[in-house]
Amino acid sequence: MADCEQEASLRAGERWQQIHRAPNVYAVQVPFTNISTSETNVYVVEDEGEVLVVDTGAPTDEGSAVLARAFDEIGVDPACASFFLTHLHMDHAGLVDRLVPQDAPLYVNRVDFDLMLDANDPVFWSRVERRVMAEGVPPERARLYCREGRYGTGIDSFKAEGRNLRFVEDGDAIAVGRHVLRVVSTAGHTPGHQSLFHEESGLFFVGDHILFVISPGLGFRPDSADSVAVYLGNVAKMFDMPISRLLVSHGDLRDGWRERAQWLLDHHARRLQRAVDFVREHPGAIGAEVIRGLKWNVPYEWEDISTAQKWCILESGMLILEHQVREGLIMRECDEQGIYRYYAA
């Protein structure tokens, strides 16, 4: 009966709902149509008058209005809040300039912050374009795909000048009233992706680290760490954490996070093996051929899907090839035109 009474006492509005007490946690659905999602879940954590907002949503007039109305109905004054960004993609950090006061504490990861700044440099994207062309993508296509990549990373999600930036990393703690949330590195989707864990309740604010509606994309960066290995390791370590519920950034909240996490590990293992199988069956294939042969879960033929989705597939595919080369399961050779060709080890 006590659980029923607690559920009945949770508050809700048109686009927000309270999902937990002690601390009070509210989920706000901020609209933004992306490749496979239609909103970003922004979370408000409150205790004893202290407030932490997790992510902000995309920079649209509609999203700004929805969030402002939700804050008003919940009773949150953004002028008195702190803010935490899981990563700096526009659909998570795009409303910082409209929402976050200049002097408000803004918790971000240094790696992702530096990447946001670097990705505004044309030299950065020249390096990415050269890497894409090395996989056998024609120059004009490579430039087109990289323009899509700029949309996610290469446009400032917010202006940093004069802000009260607080750089945090794995193991750091953020207090909200009587409660402490621990920063957990969940790098992979972005190099500095990070989540928040409230150990007392088991609530895990995971951003885009694990989603139920789609398999999170892994962002390609030239000369970076093995993003596939980093991501899989950060999924696997969750099984040792006393997590009760995942608070994801896109889609409805669901139970069964362990089953979803295991599915993602198995899904990546199958795709990694397919890359080995493909180059064994097609020795000397260029990277673009291998990537298109990995059987992506898209509803149309390659030429019919959007450029944005092609870019997501391409960068994930390059990371798969990079991982298998580092693992010694695939060999990569550069031909006389500077194009990579792949062989089974």
Short synopsis of the structure:
This protein is an alpha/beta fold and 345 residues long. Helix content is 37%, strand content 22%. Helix 6 (122-134) crosses helix 7, helix 7 crosses helix 11 (307-326) and helix 9 (257-281) crosses helix 11 (307-326).
Task: Please explain how this structure is put together.
By secondary structure, this protein is α/β, with parallel strands linked by helices. The chain has a domain at 2-120 and 156-255: Metallo-beta-lactamase, Chain A (4-Layer Sandwich). It contains 11 helices and 15 strands. The chain has helices at 2-9, 61-74, 90-93, 96-99, 110-118, 122-134, 139-154, 227-236, 257-281, 287-292, 307-326; strands at 16-20, 24-31, 39-47, 50-54, 82-84, 105-108, 164-167, 173-176, 179-185, 194-198, 203-207, 245-248, 285-286, 330-334, 340-344. Strands 1-2-3-4-5-6-7 form a 7-stranded mixed β-sheet. The chain has a 5-stranded mixed β-sheet with strand order 8-9-10-11-12, with no helix packed on it. A 3-stranded antiparallel β-sheet has the order 13-15-14. A hairpin with a 2-residue loop joins strand 8 and strand 9. Helix 6 (122-134) crosses helix 7 and helix 7 crosses helix 11 (307-326). The longest helix has 25 residues, at 257-281. The protein is globular.
